[in-house]
Design brief:
The complex is a heterodimer. Helix content of chain A is 6%, strand content 58%. Chain A has a 22-stranded antiparallel β-barrel. A five-stranded mixed beta sheet of chain A has the order 1-6-7-4-5. Chain A has a two-stranded antiparallel ribbon with strand order 2-3. In chain A, 46% of the residues are buried. The two termini of chain A are 14 Å apart. By secondary structure, chain B is mainly beta. A five-stranded antiparallel beta sheet of chain B has the order 1-4-3-2-29, with no helix packed on it. Chain B has a four-stranded antiparallel beta sheet with strand order 5-6-7-8, with no helix packed on it. Classes of the chains: A mainly beta, B mainly beta. Chains A and B meet through strand 11, strand 12, strand 25, strand 28 and strand 32 of A and helix 2 and strand 22 of B.
């Protein structure tokens, strides 16, 4: 009961927060508010996304967003291992800096290095994860949504109340291998009188991060050369997350506000090399943001969207290891984002939109001679959607205007501007069949990050943006069946060609070891195929089965250095680092009454950790099998669910990144309670 | 459980279908789950040139490898076979976990032993000079360079005591190692981040770089008396000192890396009798090798104007202390070398060997030039080839 009481107090706080926040933005208390109930019925997308949502998401053996995203096609996750290890995503081999990650509709920024660690985002309150190639093909959105070459949308849970329920409470507890302790609580409350609801979500995560790993090498005849087992050290993590949201409607205006706070300390387990089997580096993160969103259908032909965000991210990196250079760096990034978008329905099947975003980023660091950059970005996107016959088209052009200011070593200014067009077409040639042919062309770019430009010594202020051009052609077929055990099937395939020009890469500089200069000299050509098949089966006795198959082929060739064309050692034409030619996943979901059984298989084929595709740079394929079993109980109005997961069943010892061993077989038990 | 369940259904076709699908599925999983074992790296031998018979049998080349990659490897060139063999360590020592290690920083032969300073593996790997078979390892954290004198090895290390100041400045030291027992017998503290060292006139000269203190680099050479193994003097030279060598005329040569901004890399000369700085040569010197009275210098300097590296291959005469050549590669093949890194000269044939670290992340190359500076051959190496050790009598 005292829990309920304190929760009520929290809710009251949460309601007051959005109003008090602007008055005192230095508040350290965190609360947050959720998202709009945007047009939930029909998606107006020209090319649909790959999605994982709701129950489906919960059933995958995943702890973080990064674990769940592995089931999409066309992506590669760079995973340094363990619960706290860095996990970044790369869409269609274009590089992680080209991926936009959107949290409840607003992009998560990292002006410092452009990378978003998806391992930091919990699945706990996630309603949907969507992956878009190109961009989300909806025209009524902020200009930033048109700007990245690929996008991942993380949508947290929006409160919905069944029947006359006024509140939802969910408590979750996960425990298992790696010393994992992970409780969380979610509370959703509908206001008695007004159409306002609030959510409150808190999560704590602790793990020792210890796991056994084994390295083993054999002679060509198969006898063991050496075989070593050790415990992964310094992979511990302690993280606390609080999110709170307010959702409301007022005479057709739909609005929401949210506050997010994340605080963590973790060990960086580091590379395992000869004679060094543990590391000591530490990292602290403190991320805070608050954001609001509002959509207003002013007129039947005119709609308006406004969004605002303030983010403050603090990072501390410490190297206390006396066998290496002592480093204790503190970084603080701030961001202000404001967006104003308009949509006009010119005609029944023709819509126009104009979105203007303003963004301010700054980075402070404790390093000597640090540039303390500031970046002002203005984006203007003009987009149109036009549907005729059974053809849907969308065209957009984004103008990006960037102004950078630097304080050290000498104060200076620079400007950049870019115009990037995109065209998406989808056609349904047969009226009665859900068969779609789609194609897109998109040009995009990514700005050099603050590190690329201004990092003491290696930064190069003359850097130009790195450009990505994408061509895609695809088919999709969905068929529901009224009779038989097969309920429906979906088949999807895309072929694509991407070019990354002016790719920003590090070039050795001058005398002395490990001195680099960032330069626009990379050139990569990517040819790929994504394929997906999903079948939903319904058997007698309430048995359901879903099978889902994903396959990705990628030939991502490095054409950066024409002089390095040695047929064996040369990098010219070589597959770029860590991109497998073949990868895929297979998911099987079986349910019978209140039982459910899930099986997941992930395969990543052979790769090289350098564009020089020689034996010394070869990385073996890896594949893991995960199994989970769940059972739901109902007791009065209470719902319980218990599930058990066993991951990497065959205890495969593998590495995603060279010298970063991944965990073998591991277990997890999840208890869920809902009222 | 699933299979058992279907036994109770009436639909036998369905039952059979599901059952066979299930069995197939299990079989597929089992097949998919066996993976090839990883073999130890095997050496790659390549015929390169005509056999050559002198009292030098061959040389080892140490590839540094990038930090965290654990890809420091050992290559061997055999004069008597004219072959180059990459990655011989794992073959000679198949039972050593994780092979040679991470970031090789120096290589030398003394007596019958081959010593490799492996910086990030915090050790010196001691091998048999003939077979490259491991004899032992000496724990030296953050080790840099090695030199020998009457039965002892002297190794510089960055990882001395941490000072109790807010910057956690860390003094470096020189370790004295008994080459018979492979035990560290003594340590002598020097300046910040000591790199190269040379021994002459009963004294050890250690270049203190202060590389971790950028931009406030160290600018002194520590002088240690061999007999007492105590630091007796500091000679102020210039910022960011790097490598040291002693010529037979009693001069100590040391280069600076410069500060990468205003101050350029340069070569300095000290007198080991007076322990005074006596001269300097205005040449960009990233690395050098002394053969007889000729100091072969390679210099790489970043130009912010052309946004590229400017490279020079010079020869300094240690007697006249003058640059006697600006181009020891004479046939234009230096155009192929992207990032000259390591250099050595065969003391008998005077062939010049220059390594190309290229972009540091792909396999490098080794170029052999005759004494006229004409290319004889080249070969691909491991990542960041940098350090040589000749085996034989010379």
């Amino acid at each position: 009961m005292s829990l309920l009481k304190s929760a009520k107090i929290c809710v009251i706080c949460v309601i007051c927060v959005p109003f008090s926040l602007y008055a005192q933005s230095d508040t350290t208390k965190v609360h947050e508010i959720n998202e709009v109930i945007i047009t939930t019925t029909q998606r107006n997308e020209v090319i649909p996304a790959q999605r994982l949502s709701g129950e489906e998401l919960q059933r995958l053996s995943s702890l973080s967003i990064a674990d769940a995203i592995r089931y999409f096609s066309g992506i590669q996750i760079k995973d340094f291992g363990g619960i706290g290890g860095l996990k970044t995503v790369d869409i269609r081999s274009m590089g992680t800096n080209h991926v936009g990650v959107f949290y409840d509709g607003i992009q998560l920024g990292n002006a410092q290095n452009g990378q978003i660690d998806l391992g930091k985002f919990s699945l706990d309150n996630m309603e949907e994860i969507a992956l878009y190639n190109g961009q989300r093909t909806e025209i009524f959105q902020p200009a930033t949504d048109f700007a990245s070459a690929g996008a991942i949308y993380l949508q947290t849970r929006r409160p919905t109340f069944e029947g006359d329920k006024k509140s939802n409470v969910r408590a979750l507890f996960r425990t298992g291998s790696f010393g994992l302790v992970n409780p969380s609580i979610l509370w959703e409350q509908q206001n008695e009188t007004r159409p306002i609801s609030t959510t409150f979500n808190a999560e704590y995560l602790y793990a020792t991060g210890k796991y056994k790993f084994r390295y083993r090498r054999v002679f060509p005849d198969g006898t063991v050369a050496w075989d070593t087992t050790a415990i992964r050290q310094n992979g511990d993590i302690q993280a606390f997350r609080l999110e709170s949201g307010l959702f409301g409607t007022a005479s057709k205006i739909i609005w929401n506000a949210k506050v997010y706070f994340y605080n963590s300390e973790r060990g960086i387990p580091g590379a395992i090399v000869n004679n060094v089997w543990k590391n000591a580096q530490r990292q602290w993160d403190r991320n805070f943001f608050t954001q609001t969103s509002l959509t207003a259908p002013i007129h039947r032909r005119y709609e308006l969207l406004a969004r605002f965000k303030y983010a403050n991210n603090y990072l501390r990196y410490l190297n206390p290891d006396t066998t290496l250079m002592h480093i204790d760096n503190h970084f603080t990034q701030q961001e202000i984002f404001a967006c104003f978008a308009n949509k006009v329905k010119v005609y029944k099947s023709w819509e126009l939109s104009l979105a203007t975003d303003f963004q301010w980023n700054t980075l402070q660091a404790s390093m000597r001679n640090f540039a303390q950059p500031e970046r002002y970005t203005t984006l203007v996107a003009l987009a149109t959607a036009f549907n005729i016959w059974r053809i849907k088209t969308q065209a957009s052009v984004v103008g990006t205007f960037i102004h950078d200011k630097v304080k050290a070593p000498i104060s200076s200014n620079s400007n950049h501007q870019e115009f990037t067009p995109a065209l998406f077409i989808s056609c349904k040639p047969v009226r009665k069949e859900e068969f779609h042919i789609r194609a897109f062309y998109k040009r995009g770019f990514r700005m050099p990050t603050f590190n690329d430009l201004y990092y003491t010594d290696i930064g190069n202020t003359a850097l130009q943006p790195e450009r990505a051009t994408q061509y895609n052609l695809g088919l999709q077929y969905t068929k529901p069946f009224k009779k038989g055990i097969l309920e429906n099937l979906t088949l999807k395939t895309d072929v694509y060609y991407n070019e990354i020009t002016d790719k920003i890469i590090a070039v050795p500089k001058g005398s002395g070891q490990f001195r680099w200069m960032m330069m626009n000299i990379g050139f990569v050509k990517i040819r790929g195929i994504d394929a997906m098949a999903q079948f939903n089966w319904k058997f007698p006795h309430d048995i359901r089965l879903q099978t889902h198959l994903n396959y990705t082929y990628q030939k991502a060739q490095d054409f950066s250095d024409p002089t390095d064309h040695d047929p064996v050692f040369g990098t010219w034409g070589g597959q770029i680092p860590y991109i497998p030619w073949h990868s895929g996943s297979f998911v099987l979901k079986f349910s019978y009454k209140t039982y459910e059984l899930n099986y997941c298989f992930i395969y990543v084929g052979e790769r090289y950790h350098s564009s020089s595709n020689i034996r010394a740079n070869y990385e073996q394929p890896w594949y893991t099998h995960d199994l989970s079993l769940g059972k739901t109980f109902c007791f009065k109005k209470w719902n319980f669910k218990i599930s058990a997961e066993i991951n990497n069943i065959f205890n495969q010892q593998y590495e995603v990144v060279l010298n970063y061993p991944m965990p073998g077989t591991n277990f997890r038990v999840i208890l869920k309670f809902e009222i | 459980m699933i299979v058992k369940f279907f036994k109770h259904t009436d639909d036998t076709d369905l039952h059979r279908l599901i059952k066979s699908a299930f069995i197939c599925f299990i079989c597929v999983i089992c097949v998919l789950s066996c993976r090839k074992e990883i073999e130890i790296p095997f050496p790659e031998e390549e015929p390169i040139t005509n056999p050559e018979f002198t009292s030098i049998q061959g040389f080892y080349l140490l590839n540094e490898g990038n930090m965290g990659n654990n890809k420091s490897t050992l290559d061997y060139f055999d004069y008597e076979k004219g072959t180059y063999t990459r990655n011989i360590y794992a073959d000679a020592n198949p039972s050593v976990p994780k092979e040679l290690g991470d970031v090789g920083n120096d290589l030398a032969i003394y007596g019958s032993k081959l010593y490799a300073v492996i910086n990030r593996s915090n050790k010196i790997e001691v091998m048999d000079a003939q077979t490259a078979k491991r004899i032992g390892q000496i724990e030296i954290p953050n080790g840099r360079y090695i030199k020998f004198h009457s039965g002892f090895a002297y190794v510089t290390s960055y990882a001395g005591p941490v000072q109790s100041n807010p910057n956690h400045q860390q003094i470096g030291y020189v370790a004295k190692i008994d080459t018979a027992s492979l035990q560290i017998v003594d340590q002598c503290l020097v300046g910040f981040q000591p790199d190269g060292l040379a021994i002459a006139n009963g004294k050890i000269y250690v270049a203190n770089s202060g590389g971790y203190l950028s931009p406030n680099y160290e600018n002194t050479v520590s002088v240690i008396e061999v007999a007492s193994f105590k630091e007796t003097k500091r000679i102020t030279v210039a910022a960011n000192l790097n490598r040291v060598c002693a010529d037979k005329h009693g001069n100590i040569w040391v280069n600076t890396r410069g500060d990468y901004y205003q101050t350029s890399s340069k070569l300095y000369c000290m007198d080991s009798k007076t322990d005074q700085l006596i001269d300097s040569v205005n040449i960009v010197a990233s690395n050098f090798y002394l053969d007889d009275d000729k100091l072969y210098v390679i210099g790489v300097k970043w130009s912010n104007v052309t946004m590229s590296n400017e490279i020079n291959y010079g020869v300094v005469d240690v007697v006249s202390k003058q640059i006697i050549s600006n181009k020891f590669i004479t046939d234009g093949s230096d155009a192929e070398i992207r990032m000259p890194y390591g250099i050595t000269v065969n003391p008998l044939t005077k062939d010049i060997y220059v390594t190309d670290a290229r972009n540091y992340v792909t396999p490098g190359a080794l170029y052999c030039f005759d004494k006229e500076g004409k290319r004889k051959w080249d070969v691909r190496t491991g990542d960041i080839p940098g350090h040589f050790a000749f085996i034989g009598k010379f």
